[in-house]
């Protein structure tokens, strides 16, 4: 099986405007079928086929905080053992660091942190995130993952990189390192010699979007690698972070992974012969079941025809066949009555069967017989003896049922 990767699932990368973005700010999206183009829209972008959606949280919407958790809150995989308890601990630790009330914020813990002494916690406005997800869901999107636009680096990560994004007259210098995510606004007038921001790394790889490549060269005094914004948004998923935690966690994760794997098998070109073989096998099974059902119907029709022929041959006076077994039984009973023989529906035959099977000292208090139905009222017998009597009558072709204190016998 080829390894799973997001590209095989044809993801759609979507980044909404930040919570306090100016009015008229656009949504950004990158489709997997046009990876070099960033599309702008006034609202949630339209879905494309069966693409899954990766939500990117803008850097301006997140704040980063370093905390040390008590042992036992996180498992080995970094997942919370008790999400509600973890939330309460985080609110207590971050109460003095947050500008908003902790209850109004969504908090996500660093992925695969385990029992690390200190770890990163991302915070964003809960109401804004909930509205964003509702907008995407209303537009038909299925959000599989929530990732940050930038995230702090771990000690094991590669050195930080410099990014210059935006427009030439309103660019933003961003870099992430082990101390957090840093942002500085830069314009042409502030990109001259000696105007570099304090604390920024110098001897690190530098990237710039095409619109601000000249500003990057003026600020860095060296060329920066030009990379389209669409490529940068796609690279946001190259992280262990998934902000879909707590109340925003994806439900039925095992089922989601199974569905993702099934979808990958269905779409992967390497599995095309297997898909054709599976489709052919399903078609053969359906045809076989239909053929078997047709044979069963034909056999049933033949049996019914044979029974009707027996009825019409034995009793040629029968004009219409509705229920051949019942009509044949009634015809036999009529012949017996005409010849003076007692039938199974007669009182004598029923009392004869009862007398042969009834236990001693179990005579009924009263007997009623109406239209071929015998009622034995007040039968003095224990439950086991009564059950044996009913079983015996059934072997002789009689049906029995209990109606209060009466045993009802009918053919």
Write the layout of secondary structure elements.
Layout: E1 12-15, E2 27-31, E3 39-41, E4 53-57, E5 63-67, H1 83-94, E6 105-109, E7 119-125, H2 126-138, E8 143-148, E9 162-167, E10 170-177, E11 180-186, E12 206-208, H3 213-220, E13 225-226, H4 229-235, H5 253-267, H6 272-314, H7 324-338, H8 347-357, E14 366-370, E15 373-377, H9 383-395, E16 399-403, E17 406-410
Parallel strand pairs: 1-4, 4-8, 9-12, 12-13
Antiparallel strand pairs: 1-2, 2-3, 5-7, 6-7, 9-10, 10-11, 14-15, 15-17, 16-17
Helix pairs in contact: 6-7
Can you characterise this structure?
With 411 residues, this protein is of the alpha+beta class. It folds into 4 domains: 6-149 and 239-267, Nucleotidyltransferase, domain 5 (2-Layer Sandwich); 162-235, Nucleotidyltransferase, domain 5 (2-Layer Sandwich), CATH 3.30.420; 270-339; 342-410. It has helices at residues 83-94, 126-138, 213-220, 229-235, 253-267, 272-314, 324-338, 347-357, 383-395, and strands at residues 12-15, 27-31, 39-41, 53-57, 63-67, 105-109, 119-125, 143-148, 162-167, 170-177, 180-186, 206-208, 225-226, 366-370, 373-377, 399-403, 406-410. The strands form 4 sheets. It has a 5-stranded mixed sheet with strand order 3-2-1-4-8, sandwiched between helices. A hairpin with a 2-residue loop joins strand 16 and strand 17. The longest helix has 43 residues, at 272-314. It is elongated, with a radius of gyration of 41 Å. The two termini are 66 Å apart. Mean pLDDT is 79; it is low at 1-8.
